[in-house]
Amino acid sequence: MEQEREPAGGWKATLRTRARFCELLAIVTAIAAFAACPAAADDAGTSPGSAHNGLDDWSFRAAAYGWLLNVSGNVTARGQTADVNASFLQLVQKSDSMGALMGYFEADKGKMGFYTDVVWANLGFSKSMTAYRNPLPGVTISAAANAALTYSMTIVEAGGVYEVARWPGSEGSFTAVDGLLGFRYWNNSVDLNLDVTGSANVAPLGLERTANFAIARSGSLNWVDPVVGVRMRHQFTPSQELTVRGDIGGFGLQNRFAWQALAVYSYSWQVSSYRLSGVVGYRALAVDATGGSGLSDNGANLVLHGPIIGFAVKF
Questions:
Q1: Architecture of the domain defined by 11-314
Q2: What is the residue-level pLDDT of the chain in tens, covering all 315 positions?
Q3: What is the pTM of this model?
Q4: Residue 167, CB half-sphere, CA atoms under 13 Å: how many?
Q5: Strand pairing of 112-125 and 70-77?
Q6: How many Å apart are CA 149 and CA 127, to the nearest integer?
Q7: Angstrom distance (rounded) from CA 278 to CA 314
Q8: Using only C-alpha atoms, what is the Rg of the chain?
């Protein structure tokens, strides 16, 4: 991709750089408002040294994206576990947010780069999306719940990228591979609040009882994991690029493991001194983490996946 070359140092260059930052802030704000549900797909065609028209020049990318989430798995709050399975359309009807809100920023110089990625989501699951597990061994509960759970998550990822290989193609085309190393912070909060009408059959004692009862549990779990990954970029033309990324985190340390897969296609336009990109793709992020035991057990074993769509600005 083409990148703009910054002029040499001096007070004129400083003023010009400040002016560019002000213009960038206005553009990103406008994009975020237009996109309605912004978020950031991991790199969406961004790469260290992707143009190689100035190895000493810095290049920057800021992005806003929407992640149309589908969720499957289970969450645990203070020893109580609920299985969840919901599509994006179901979550739209119940959640405070239409999927996940994401923001991405990357700064590159030559073959090296640094990035940060933020995800926030507040997801509500109705009774049709949730199955409450039996709380006690030997006790069978069949119940109808009027409410299910709310799951909130914040994910912050930061790290570095390095281009390890590049193969030139036809004019304006190339394929490159980058290595990634960083960390990912997770903050999970679960509110399980059920008003239940059902029957309990205690098989060992031959007792059966029907009653109304309430179950209310809340818990949180947060941690930081190392992340190692690789991404491949293929630039078809200076305006079109396909990016594929995969990574793993946690590595089973302290009962935590995560993986991620991402495929993104971007198409860009030159607008003044900036390059604007439209991005579409698909992202899947899975986590399996537990903390505590017994009534203090909190955890999440989820796969979050769905299409991503949004805009990015590069300068």
A1: Beta Barrel (2.40)
A2: 444 444 434 434 333 444 444 444 444 444 444 333 333 333 433 444 444 444 568 899 999 998 888 999 888 777 777 788 888 888 877 655 555 678 899 999 989 999 999 998 888 777 667 766 655 444 444 544 444 677 888 999 999 999 999 999 888 899 999 999 999 999 888 777 655 555 555 555 455 555 554 555 566 778 899 999 999 999 999 899 999 999 999 887 777 899 999 999 999 998 888 899 999 999 999 999 887 665 567 778 899 999 999 999 998
A3: 0.71
A4: 6
A5: unpaired
A6: 9
A7: 12
A8: 23
Q: Which two tokens stand for residue 169?
A: 């193609």
Query: And the tokens for 262?
Result: 């991402």
Residue with tokens 């079109």: 240
